[in-house]
Amino acid sequence: MSEFRTEKDSMGELKVPADALWGAQTQRAVDNFPISGQHMPAPFIRALGLIKAACAEANRELDLLDAERAAAIIEAAGKVAANEVDDQFPIDVYQTGSGTSSNMNANEVIAHLADPEGELGVHPNDHVNMGQSSNDVIPTAIQVSACLMAAEHLLPALHHLADVLGKRSQELADVAKTGRTHLMDAMPVTLGQELATWGCQVESADNRIRDALARMRYLPQGGTAVGTGINAHEEFGQRVAAALARSTGFEFDSADNKFEGIASQDAAVELSGQLKTLAVSLMKIANDLRWMNSGPLAGLGEIELEALQPGSSIMPGKVNPVIPEAVCMVAARVIGNDTTITVAGQSGNFQLNVMLPVIAASLLDSLTILGNAARLLADRAIASFKVREDKLEEALSRNPILVTALNPVIGYEKGAAAAKKAYAEGRPIIDVAAEMTDLSREELERLLDPVKLTRGGL
Question: Is residue 81 domain-resident?
């Protein structure tokens, strides 16, 4: 049996692997783009399957596609949407900028699955791609895949992280520690306040992402080649969006102006920008954890992160903050992805953006790794770190900046003098203040109570 079969398209004949479900146009793209070895991500392929099924359903409702062919296409597209045939999508991310190759890859695979013996005469272009163009399918696939990844993967992970931060914040609400500004000793805060701050950052990121998704849900499907809707029924876009909403549970709708969704990728750029903001927040949180965990002897040593693996191939006993480090690398990658998407987003000339595949791959990469990193940060760092209260108390007792609380009583100048003396002599501020003021020890203990100072006020 031959290892290849002959397929043909409008440009002629060429050989395709005998067991491949794809056809000539996919094979041309495989041959033309041997660039990275990176294929379009699984969530994007899922979205293509969902879209093709929705399009067949819409065309059947509009009496443009007969019931038998429509049913076969819907069933075949369902297999693509279930990621059962991902190995049949071999085209490199770095391909034609419209993603035409990936659209035809889906059309050819679905046609072969729907009509393996050729009995129904299902054609990749005439039937699977009916009422469609790569120019509206691929932007729609970007939006559908990103919305579903956000709703099903990233946002639940952020909710989990915020929940874990909230629980630990309550648990540590009365554990005071030295605050730091400019990496220098400052007035005290509680660990609970620190974790609540991180939780607020995560919740704000969640809100920003949801706001961006509100614009990602308006789909350009039905605009076809340039946004005019040529070769598509006037109700096609709305019916496809409704079918996608039914099949996914996400509130997709048809864009009023389909030119925008084809000519630009502004909604994807906006979403990516919010993912970058989340990445910045996670990097701040991860780096705070690294500082607090530093030591354990020569650093701050305020907390002890869970020991997950040996930290050195040469230094026995060394344990490193591996989860925060991994989160920082994820954040760096997402920031890089955002730069890629920013450049790609402005690469639309007239009626079509021509960097769609790299936008899809970068956006889905960010959504995937941010969700994974958020869960790891919650479960393997935030939930499990131990507090070294002895270190916290030692640092607080020697913190001259506590003298700030005495400003309303003794004035800034006398307070500064007391702080400098405490620094110079390495003594607790309460002892120095007892010598330099007429305040009683009892009054000083009340005024300099670290936990009380975390409550603010006079």
Answer: yes
User: Is 240 contained in some domain?
Assistant: no
User: Are residues 288 and 353 part of one domain?
Assistant: yes
Instruction: Tell me, yes or no, whether 247 lies in a domain.
Output: no
pLDDT in tens, 11-34: 999 999 999 999 999 999 999 999
* Range of the structural domain that residue 191 is part of: 142-216+263-389
What integer pLDDT is reported at residue 20 of this predicted model?
Answer: 97
Nearest Cα neighbor of 283 from 321, 328, 315, 238 is 328
CATH number of the domain residue 37 falls in: 1.10.275.10
**Spatial separation of the C-alpha atoms in residues 369 and 375, rounded to whole Å:** 10
Cα atoms found within 13 Å of the Cα of residue 231, Cβ hemisphere only: 12
User: Catalytic residue numbers?
Assistant: 182, 312
pLDDT digits (tens, 9 = 90+) for 359-382: 999 999 999 999 999 999 999 999
* Closest by Cα among 447, 327, 451 to 392: 451
431: Cα separation from own chain's centroid? 51
350 plus 440 within the same structural domain: no
Q: Does 48 reside within a domain?
A: yes
Query: Does 370 lie in the same domain as 435?
Result: no
Write out the two tokens for 311: 């930290």
Overall pTM > 0.90: yes
Whole-number pLDDT of residue 1: 57
Distance between CA atoms of 181 and 313, rounded to whole angstroms?
35
DSSP code of residue 92: B
* 3-class secondary-structure state, position 375: helix
pLDDT (0 to 100) of residue 186: 96
Residues 6+ apart with CB under 8 A from 323: 286, 305, 308, 376, 377, 380, 381
Is residue 239 within 8 A of residue 58, CB to CB? The reply is: yes
**pLDDT category of residue 348 using cuts at 50, 70 and 90:** confident
Helices (H) and strands (E) in the chain, counts: 18, 10
Report the chain's terminal Cα–Cα distance, integer Å.
Answer: 88
